[in-house]
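Section 5: illustrative case.
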C-alpha cells in the first residue's frame, strides 16, 4: 500500500477559483465587505482587551467606485495586515484567519462574532477583476504599509508603500467582461 499527498498546482486551481468558485459572481462584494467588517471587529476586540491602545476612530467600510479608472475599492479602518500576515493569509490559499483568531481567543467575549474567512472568499475578487491590489497598514506599532498585487496568476508582487491610515484597501481593477459592477 502507498500513501501520499495530492499535489495541487496553483496554475491549475486559479482558473477554477476565478470561474467556478461561486455561481453568482456578485458574491465577491459580500465576501470582501465581510472581510472588512471582520477587520474592524477585530480592532474593536483588541481595543476592548487592551491589546490595542490607539484611537479607534470611525470603524466603517467604504465601497468606492472610480469609473474613470475602472476600479472598485473596499476600504476598512480595521486591524490591517503586516507583510508577514499578507504572506500567511493571502499567499496561502484557503487558510482561514478567522478560524485561527477564534481559536486563539476562544472564551473571550466577542471572539465568536468574527465570521469571515479571509481565504477563498478574497479570491472571489478575481472573478470580476483583471488585477487586485491590497494596500494595508497594520495596527501593530512600528508597522510599515505594504501593497500586494496580482493579476490572478500565481505570481504576485509585494512592496512597501506610503499609507497614513490603519486598515486595508482592496482595489479591484474591473475586467472588461464585468463592467456592470
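Designed sequence:
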Amino acid at each position: 500500500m502507498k500513501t501520499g499527498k495530492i499535489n495541487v498546482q496553483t496554475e491549475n486551481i486559479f482558473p477554477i477559483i476565478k470561474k467556478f468558485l461561486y455561481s453568482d459572481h456578485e458574491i465577491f462584494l459580500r465576501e470582501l465587505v465581510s472581510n472588512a467588517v471582520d477587520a474592524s471587529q477585530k480592532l474593536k476586540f483588541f481595543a476592548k482587551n487592551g491589546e490595542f491602545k490607539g484611537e479607534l476612530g470611525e470603524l466603517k467600510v467604504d465601497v468606492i467606485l472610480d469609473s474613470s479608472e475602472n476600479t472598485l475599492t473596499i476600504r476598512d479602518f480595521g486591524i490591517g495586515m503586516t507583510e508577514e500576515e499578507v504572506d500567511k493569509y493571502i499567499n496561502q490559499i484557503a487558510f482561514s484567519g478567522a478560524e485561527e483568531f477564534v481559536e486563539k481567543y476562544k472564551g473571550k467575549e466577542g471572539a465568536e462574532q468574527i465570521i469571515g474567512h479571509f481565504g477563498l472568499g478574497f479570491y472571489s475578487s478575481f472573478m470580476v477583476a483583471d488585477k487586485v491590489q491590497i494596500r494595508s497598514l497594520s495596527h501593530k506599532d512600528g508597522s510599515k504599509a505594504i501593497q500586494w498585487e496580482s493579476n490572478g496568476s500565481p505570481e504576485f508582487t509585494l512592496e512597501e508603500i506610503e499609507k497614513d491610515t490603519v486598515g486595508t484597501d482592496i482595489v479591484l481593477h474591473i475586467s472588461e467582461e464585468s463592467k456592470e459592477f
